[in-house]
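quick one before i forget lol
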Amino acid sequence: MLLALTAMLLGVMSLVLLFVPRSPGEDSPEAGFTRDMMVHHTQAVEMADIARNQSTDPAIRVLATDIFLSQQAEIGQMQGWLDAWGLPYTGTEPAMSWMGHPTYGLMPGMASSEEIDRLNQASPEEVDEQFLRLMIRHHQGALPMAEAILERSQRPEVTKLAQKIDVSQQAEIRGMQALLESKGLPPVEGQPPSLPVVTGEEFATSVPTTFRDTARLMLLPLAILAASWLVLDELHRRRVRAGLAEHLTPPFGWQLAAVGALTASAALHIGLAPSRFEDSILTGIPFFSVAGVVVKASTIHGVFFCVAGVVAAIVAAAILAWPSRQAYLVGAWLSGTLIVLWAAFRFVPPPGAEAPEAVDLVGLLTKTTELVAAVSCTVLWYRPARRSPSEYSRIRSDIPLYLAAASSMIAALIHLWVMPAYFDKWWGYQVFFLVVAIAQGLYGVALLSWGSRKLLLLIGIVGNILIIVLYLIVHTIGIPLLGPYAGEVQGGGAIDLGAMVAELAVVITLMAEMVAHQRPVREGRRSCEDTL
């Protein structure tokens, strides 16, 4: 008891750490942006120094001096950041790796050494044009970097500088284009260089950062486990004393494996949550905007990882304090669903992404813990304790209910997962997906709790058929009746198809369960008629 209370207290302290600002690490986007922009700025300062000393045009000299002074000051500012963060001025990764676009040569927009030499040797008549063209291209190369860090960072000092660079350099590009035209020279053609989106690499979380977060927040899942264990253990003891529950003694080895694997999965998911909150792969999809506050779909990913970690810890506590077939089934379902989702998003993009996720070491380790949990819970489900043949017969007869409950929960999880993709369309679509997800999740719990009651089975069959029919209408005729997209035919995807398959599985298993329960009734009636 004292150990559990201590773990709860330490877990609350760990939760506080979740909201304590951290200095950027060696492999953070902030460190990568700062180092790359320092290199970029250094060359701009060099070119501006050449132009202000060699040009005879007052406008060029004023522009070059402004660039020289402003970017030199920004270099000093960024060096101060690295000093405060305890990081060296140079990193070990290639330039722009933090953007998912490692560059081994010159960064976009930068001038070659030959171009710098030509600028240095140019006559006063030639230096103006060469400087303007090189600096326009140089500024164009810096803009994607500023935009990328705005998507990836929430540190105010970094975003403020990135916004300043974005605004000031776009203005300077327009001014330099106008200077070229005033000299009768053609402007620089083209737009800022676009960088390929390597979303899979962006979404992969680095091992050191994740393990640091996992170690920092490890007490939180342990506190949840301890608190859940205290509550469930007390409830279980009361029900056993009242004769309402059976005290099972499951195989210790399998129980230990299930609890340990679920706890490890909970710790890893909660450790991954901070990086998912900061991830920028889905930042283009807003959740809602109220009073200027915008919650992005990346926040939904962070919440999903937090919820998965909390649920895994609670299930581990249930298996430890109140061993039951329902707890084993939930543990196997949770672990299996997380593994299936992880595998699916290696082939199809998650909602809001443009490419599937990458395979990384942390993900493989997390899935390994979940595979151990799924196997252990399945074994416990099949042999929770020594039972009579009649009890095993009853267990086999309940398998359709368990399959239907698992399918309903999978459909609920899928609807909750894809919900962010509809947040930017209309609030009605948001409410629909949320209500469906909650209803399907609660229905799965109801099946596990109340079994094969006829009304409950009918509700599940009718409700899931209606959802399937609505899915078919939306993807053939169009969105019915309401909303700004009413009448528009929606395209389908692997995730949509997965939800429909899960709902179809619910319908089929529930219908089989109804038929199985009607057969003994009909046989009983026929037997009575024969007797009469």
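fyi The chain has three domains: 1-20+206-386, 29-198, 389-532.
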